[in-house]
């Protein structure tokens, strides 16, 4: 309807015979393509905020309108009996690598048959939030059979997150050989908490590793300190060397692996359709955050944020500060995020480009609809199962695969019914 007057105005302008100024038009002068109307209405049912005195920096930064998936869902248990499973990675033949926090790695068929534990992995410090965490297939797996994983590495004086890679030797008794530690989070600290641990390969052959600030005060104060890996996203090459185009590669005294800073504890990370990194971090009470970490930027922790200590004590004087980035979205009360995928499959066309996040304390699979890098709708799926969801990945078949965090953890598959 708006194109007709625009054509008239444009024709009059081009002919040079109009003395009448054209009607005001939006900058750019083009009619945007038609889109579905944005969701509206009340947010997801979630209880009152813990920190009502903090207000969002822009509309829609929290409590986006509730949305509902139209497709009926089928949730199938593929396997169970995992002891606190943590991560899934698909092999090229559709079998899965599945980690357990206490240190075991399994190969699981699409039908749910588990291999014996893969032999040869190094020891882990599994206290607290530690253990064997994420696993990924190397980008050149077909040639190299290299797999990559994160774990809390026991060290003199404490521990730290480490990234290792090794060649997977498949068979009746699978094992890894030529184990190499390619990254060590420094400094070493005696903490059983907040070391992050997600791995994300990018199509240009780089590897993002998400880290945390160790929770205890001695670590927390290092989250914006470039001499420390705590509270950072780091970016490395698959052999552990440092890409020269990293933002602090030439900064004296900075750890060159750093990509972004000011994070609390990132347990969710994924690439979008433009191969941009998105993360969700465990916040304090009332302060879980969705961010899109960009090179060299400071995401504010512990200076700014929307939460408070679990004791109820304040942490932040303000939610905003110059030179510090706002989260794309935050949750108060928290969801306790772990695992993330941005949907690109064909099984659920209505989910394309939606963000899925596992929810631990929220016992939900959290779905976000995003437009122009803002969250415009939120849904909590699978809440009837009352399960802590540790991991969500998209399978090669376009289904979502989940792990529940329990001593009898399940591997679940979500498809249309
Ligand atoms: Ca932040």
What do these coordinates show?
This protein has 417 residues and is mainly beta. The chain has a single domain (38-416), classed as TolB, C-terminal domain (Neuraminidase), CATH 2.120.10. It contains 3 helices and 23 strands. The chain has helices at 3-15, 141-144, 217-220; strands at 73-82, 85-90, 96-100, 105-108, 132-137, 146-155, 158-169, 175-184, 199-201, 207-210, 233-236, 258-260, 266-271, 277-281, 288-291, 329-331, 337-342, 355-359, 364-371, 374-381, 389-394, 400-404, 409-416. Strands 1-23-22-21 form a 4-stranded antiparallel sheet, with no helix packed on it. A 4-stranded antiparallel sheet has the order 5-6-7-8. The protein has a 4-stranded antiparallel sheet with strand order 9-10-11-12, with no helix packed on it. It is globular, with a radius of gyration of 23 Å. The two termini are 40 Å apart. Residues 1-26 have low confidence and may be disordered. Calcium ion (CA) binds at residues 289, 299-301, 305, 327.
């Amino acid at each position: 309807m708006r194109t007709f007057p625009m054509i008239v105005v444009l024709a009059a302008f081009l002919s040079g015979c109009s003395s009448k100024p054209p009607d005001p038009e939006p900058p750019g002068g083009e009619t945007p393509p038609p889109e579905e109307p944005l969701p509206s209405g009340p947010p997801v049912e979630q209880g009152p905020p813990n920190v009502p005195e903090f207000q969002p920096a822009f509309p829609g930064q929290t409590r986006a309108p509730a949305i509902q998936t139209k497709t009926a869902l089928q949730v199938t248990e593929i396997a169970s009996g995992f002891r606190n499973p943590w991560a899934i990675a698909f092999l090229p033949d559709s079998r899965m690598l599945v980690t357990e926090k206490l240190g075991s790695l399994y190969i699981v068929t699409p039908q749910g048959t588990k291999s014996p534990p893969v032999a040869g992995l190094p020891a882990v410090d599994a206290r607290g939030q530690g253990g064997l965490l994420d696993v990924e297939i190397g980008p050149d797996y077909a040639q190299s059979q290299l797999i990559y994983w994160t774990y809390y590495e026991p060290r003199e004086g404490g521990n730290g997150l480490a990234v290792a890679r090794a060649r997977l030797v498949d068979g009746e008794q699978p094992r890894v050989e030529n184990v190499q530690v390619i990254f060590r989070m420094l400094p070493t600290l005696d903490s059983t908490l907040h070391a992050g641990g997600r791995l994300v390969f990018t199509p240009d052959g780089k590897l993002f590793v998400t880290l945390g600030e160790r929770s205890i005060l001695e670590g927390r104060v290092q989250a914006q300190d470039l001499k420390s890996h705590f509270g950072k996203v780091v970016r490395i090459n698959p052999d552990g060397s440092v890409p020269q185009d990293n933002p602090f590669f030439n900064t004296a005294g900075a750890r060159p692996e750093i990509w972004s800073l000011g994070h609390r504890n990132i347990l969710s990370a994924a690439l979008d359709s433009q191969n941009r990194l998105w993360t969700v971090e465990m916040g304090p009470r009332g302060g879980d955050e969705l961010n899109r970490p960009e090179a060299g930027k400071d995401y504010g922790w512990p200076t700014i944020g929307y939460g408070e200590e679990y004791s109820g004590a304040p942490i932040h004087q303000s939610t905003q500060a110059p030179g510090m980035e706002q989260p794309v979205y935050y949750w108060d009360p928290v969801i306790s995020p772990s695992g993330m995928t941005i949907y690109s499959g064909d099984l659920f066309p209505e989910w394309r480009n939606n963000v899925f996040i596992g929810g631990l304390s929220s016992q939900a699979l959290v779905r976000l609809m995003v437009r122009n890098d803002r969250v415009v709708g939120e849904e909590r799926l699978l809440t009837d199962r009352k399960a802590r969801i540790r991991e969500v990945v998209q399978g090669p078949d376009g289904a979502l695969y989940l792990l529940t965090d329990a001593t009898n953890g399940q591997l679940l598959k979500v498809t249309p019914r």
